[in-house]
Specification:
Layout: E1 2-10, E2 16-20, E3 24-25, H1 26-38, E4 42-49, E5 54-55, H2 57-69, E6 72-83, E7 88-99, E8 102-112, H3 118-136, E9 142-147, H4 150-157, H5 165-181, E10 184-189, H6 196-206, E11 212-217
Parallel strand pairs: 6-9, 9-10
Antiparallel strand pairs: 1-2, 1-3, 1-4, 4-5, 6-7, 7-8, 8-11
């Protein structure tokens, strides 16, 4: 989680200046804030995250302690598939994360109905991924999103426009959930070869094979 520090500084002439830092990792920002306070010239101090949420030093310290016991360092993969003949879709997601100093992998899929295209299946797969992240308890931290649907990722990042109403509805729903969870998204388009796990799960969902599995990964895993 990155935050910027905002503090009111009292000059030697008793003038008040409101200063802000660049965005920094929260732990580093807390250390710097303590150094600022040692000057004896800080009147007020707070932290602002990338979703414009304001945190006190006490609140931010508490959040960082909670993070260790909650899912963090999250890398999330998604893929959607669609059969034009059967009109059957499938979503596959793979989530790697740390919790209590251990590394885990969650794999899940879902059949998708009432879709019109493969592109729509990709949006639905990303929405399914957001639901799984919410169930895991992921909130107020960066998440790396990876998938081979460059259209979905580029539209979510704002790099590409979306002109289709149906697709915009998916984007609005996804972005609303991201904001609700306080997630700081990092979008990383990858090749289909790099997305094999999620792709296989989506294909299995289309064939009627439902999978949900959690695995603790060893250092070699």
């Amino acid at each position: 989680m990155d935050v910027m520090i905002q503090w009111t500084y009292i000059t030697p002439k008793k003038q008040e200046l409101v200063l802000t830092s660049d965005f920094l990792p929260a732990a580093e920002a807390l250390r710097l804030a303590e150094d600022f306070e040692k000057t004896g010239r800080v009147k007020e101090l707070c932290f602002i995250d990338q979703n414009h949420v304001t945190w006190s030093k006490k609140e931010l310290n508490k959040l960082l302690k909670e993070v260790e016991t909650e899912p963090h360092d999250v890398i999330a993969y998604f893929d959607g598939g669609f059969d034009n003949e059967t009109l059957q879709g499938g979503a596959g997601v793979v989530i790697y994360y740390k919790q209590n100093n251990e590394q885990y992998r969650l794999r899940a899929n879902r059949q998708l109905d009432e879709l019109k295209s493969n592109n729509e299946a990709e949006y639905a797969a990303f929405w399914f991924l957001m639901q799984m992240l919410e169930e895991l308890g992921v909130h107020h931290l960066p998440v790396i999103f990876r998938g081979d649907s460059h259209v979905v990722l580029k539209q979510l990042s704002g790099d590409w426009p979306c002109f289709e109403d149906d697709h915009n509805a998916w984007l609005d729903r996804i972005e609303e959930k991201i904001n609700e969870l306080g997630i700081q998204p990092i979008y990383e388009p990858i090749s289909r070869k790099q997305n094999k796990e999620a792709d296989q799960l989506a294909r299995q969902a289309m064939e009627g094979q439902t999978i949900t599995s959690m695995m603790e990964l060893t250092e070699k895993g």
